[in-house]
């Protein structure tokens, strides 16, 4: 049942090694993207099949599903969006922000679709390498790289974006004693302002990321840093994620482009040859429509920063959420249906452990919920205002409050939509709740749905082991604290 899903049949996983994208038709460039309606229909069939095939049920009350078709379509739409606005032959590397969905099979799927990896920790780098993403298609960002991480990245030839002057000094020391194939750049914060979600706005005046370009003396410091170091050939900026308007993102990119032009002018040569414009395309969590699309953003960029696409700069992008979010669904069984203060409450198995942001910041992170019956069929019926709760032991563990949905009853399933990025792959171990299994799905040849396990569910034994189970008496007994293994 849960084997490996077939690939595209090309077997050409390394076909994008030169970083140059082929032009692809703009067939998926419609508002609504590659068929929001089709996506919903695929999801309905997958939910039904998950119940019928026993992936979900009383003994497995929470699973996550990934729509492989949808992920491939989003990857293709991203490639074609930039191919449509760049001069022919422009090297473009789309590096998926691994933090959005840190699952090896997902990274492998994206790699097969011509998408590299943007990593920001030793763990993320290991995931990308395990997925087979080559060093030349990997970018290391992180505000807190250790000397060991930098050394490894340089040895592997992975692109490095330097966050601050102290990190640059470390690179000076490392490069004094060896050579590297790594392209290296500096991350700048254009300080163009924040978006709707403060915690995800990286271009505010006081953001912790990059060199704050408008601070006194900073711009001149950056230019000098490049003029003194011929090996600095890239420039990086990432203006923020969810909640940052496209025009503000484009302003951030424009500021980086203008700085690159200034550096190249003063260097008297094209020292900066590649601009890394980050990710951050917002996702529409309110409906099935894909909006904005990657194509729309590419057009906004072309309007705002025409020089970005004239072929003089190679491009790197780092999209995360916009590639994966809408292709993930969590299915949570309704364990109990009750009523409190006159309001129906469905107590499900999806709460703060898999929807941490939504539970702690519900205004910023509302999620759509769809109701399915115990057989996995979409529920019809009038909208009943109800709460959808999670399993955790605190009152705020709610996925939705006062939401009008067909009444959820015991044994039904609540589907939590658009959770393919930053949700079930970002488990939070509250109440020692288990990480749910993740399965990818595809239509099979016989008109059904085939599933492949991406990640097994965490077992209770795993939880015990990860919670010091082998050290039960570490804190008691005569020799406590004496270096016992
Ligand atoms: C988080 C992050 C991204 C991806 O952001 P999304 O909103 O998921 O597209 C890209 N680049 C950097 C440096 C990031 O920190």
Automatic annotation (TrEMBL):
Ubl conjugation found in the keyword field: no
Stored PROSITE patterns: ODR_DC_2_2 (PS00879)
Keywords associated with the record: Pyridoxal phosphate
The protein's required cofactors: pyridoxal 5'-phosphate
N6-(pyridoxal phosphate)lysine PTM positions: 99
Active site annotation, chain numbering: 393
Domain spans labelled Orn/DAP/Arg decarboxylase 2 C-terminal: 326-420
Entry GO MF terms: diaminopimelate decarboxylase activity
UniProt-listed PANTHER family: DIAMINOPIMELATE DECARBOXYLASE, GROUP IV DECARBOXYLASE
Name under which the protein is recorded: Diaminopimelate decarboxylase
The organism of origin for this protein: Streptomyces tagetis
């Amino acid at each position: 049942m849960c084997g490996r899903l077939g690939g595209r049949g090309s077997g050409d996983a390394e076909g994008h090694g030169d970083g140059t994208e082929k032009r692809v038709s703009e067939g998926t460039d419609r508002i609504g993207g590659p068929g929001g309606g089709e996506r919903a229909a695929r999801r309905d069939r997958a939910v039904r099949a998950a119940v019928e095939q026993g992936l979900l049920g009383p003994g497995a009350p929470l699973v996550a599903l990934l729509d492989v078709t949808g992920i491939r379509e989003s990857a293709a739409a991203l490639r074609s969006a930039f191919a449509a606005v760049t001069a022919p032959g422009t090297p473009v590397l789309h590096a998926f922000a691994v933090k959005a969905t840190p699952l090896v099979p997902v990274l492998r799927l994206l790699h097969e679709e011509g998408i590299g990896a943007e990593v920001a920790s030793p763990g993320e780098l290991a995931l990308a390498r395990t997925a087979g993403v080559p060093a030349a298609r990997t970018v290391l960002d992180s505000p807190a790289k250790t000397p060991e991480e930098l050394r490894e990245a340089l040895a592997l030839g992975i692109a490095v974006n330097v966050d601050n002057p102290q990190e640059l000094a470390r690179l000076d020391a490392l490069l004094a004693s060896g050579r590297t194939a790594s392209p290296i750049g500096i991350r700048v914060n254009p300080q163009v302002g924040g978006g709707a979600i403060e915690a995800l706005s990286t271009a505010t005046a006081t953001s912790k990321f990059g060199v704050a370009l408008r601070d006194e003396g900073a711009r001149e410091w950056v230019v000098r840093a490049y003029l003194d170091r011929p090996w600095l050939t890239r420039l990086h900026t990432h203006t923020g994620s969810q909640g940052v308007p496209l025009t503000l993102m484009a302003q951030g990119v424009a500021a980086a482009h203008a700085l690159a032009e200034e550096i190249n002018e003063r260097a008297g040569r094209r020292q900066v040859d590649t601009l890394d414009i980050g990710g951050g395309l917002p996702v529409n969590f309110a409906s099935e429509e894909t909006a904005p699309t990657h194509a729309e953003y590419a057009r906004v960029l072309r309007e705002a920063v025409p020089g970005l696409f004239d072929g003089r700069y190679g491009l790197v992008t780092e999209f995360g959420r916009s590639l994966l979010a809408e292709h993930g669904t969590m299915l949570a069984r309704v364990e109990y249906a009750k009523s409190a203060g006159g309001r129906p409450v469905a107590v499900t198995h999806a709460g703060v452990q898999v929807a941490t942001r939504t539970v702690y910041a519900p205004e910023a992170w509302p999620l759509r919920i769809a109701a399915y019956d115990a057989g996995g069929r979409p529920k019809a019926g009038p909208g009943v205002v109800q709460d959808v709760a999670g399993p955790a032991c605190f009152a705020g563990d709610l996925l939705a409050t006062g939401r009008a949905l067909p009444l959820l009853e015991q044994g039904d399933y609540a589907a939590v939509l658009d959770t393919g990025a930053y949700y079930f792959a970002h488990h939070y171990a509250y109440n020692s709740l288990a990480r749910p299994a993740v399965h990818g799905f595809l239509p099979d040849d016989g008109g059904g749905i085939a599933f492949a396990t991406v990640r097994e569910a965490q077992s209770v034994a795993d939880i015990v082991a990860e919670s010091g189970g082998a050290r039960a008496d570490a804190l008691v007994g005569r020799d406590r604290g004496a270096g016992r293994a």
